[in-house]
Write a structure and sequence with these properties.
Blueprint lengths: L1 E7 L4 E3 L9 H12 L6 E7 H6 L11 E5 L4 H8 L6 E3 L2 H9 L5 E8 L1 H8 L4 E8 L7 E2 L8 E5 L9 E3 L2 E10 L24
Length: 207
């Protein structure tokens, strides 16, 4: 299982008002390629919370070429009606439930990608083997949604992902860069200790 996120590196932020605080066509193109690439006869799954589903423009959802799974504790029938969730989208109540539904799916699922939001990222950090993080550089001071603290999870930066362009990319006046991290081992009880290279996201500042 993998986790995919774009993070404003200076602020540890991932959203503003239930939307992305930037417009990065190159990053979205990479996200599509990453989450759609699988061997012939298989498909990847993208797991998201209800707010993340809402943040996707209606014309782009469900995300094509992927098994879409939306997690919510709301009644499934009401959820589908209220938020326009089509029958080809799987609705689950938790990450464990989502994995169970995937294992019982008639489709052959190759990889599972957690794509948001913050609470699902927090749960996924302790269970994912890989992180695909886009470092977004710049000033985004008014964000209200943040990437969770790493806690005792320790990941090693192994460089640019296979499907991503290397080095700093630019869309408009925003610079960003793609990185992949692999799980190493649990960190020491004090999460502030250790090499920054093994902590992909800085500890969240007090808010």
């Amino acid at each position: 299982m993998c986790l995919v996120a774009a993070v404003a590196w200076k602020y540890n932020a991932i959203g503003k008002g239930d939307a992305l605080p930037w417009r990065l066509p190159g990053e979205l193109k990479y996200f599509r390629k990453l989450t759609m690439s699988s061997p012939e006869g298989t498909i990847n799954a993208v797991v998201m919370g209800r707010k993340t589903w809402e943040s996707i423009p209606e014309k782009y959802r469900p995300l094509p070429g992927r098994l879409n799974i939306v997690l919510s504790r709301q009644d499934e029938g009401l959820l589908r009606k209220q938020f326009g969730i089509s029958p080809d989208v799987i609705v689950g109540t938790s990450l464990d439930h989502a994995l169970e539904l995937i294992s019982n799916s008639k489709q052959r699922v190759e990889s599972v990608f957690i794509i948001g939001g913050s609470s699902l990222f927090e749960e996924g950090l302790s269970r994912c083997d890989s992180l695909y993080l886009t470092r977004v550089y710049g000033e985004f001071p008014d964000c209200d949604t943040f990437f969770p603290d790493m806690g005792r999870n320790v990941f090693g930066n192994i460089g640019t992902p296979e499907l991503a362009p290397s080095g700093i990319q630019k869309d408009g006046d925003v610079d960003y860069e793609f990185f992949k991290y692999k799980r190493l081992r649990p960190s020491s009880p004090d999460p502030t200790k250790g090499s920054p290279e093994h902590s992909p996201v800085k500890q969240q500042r007090a808010r």
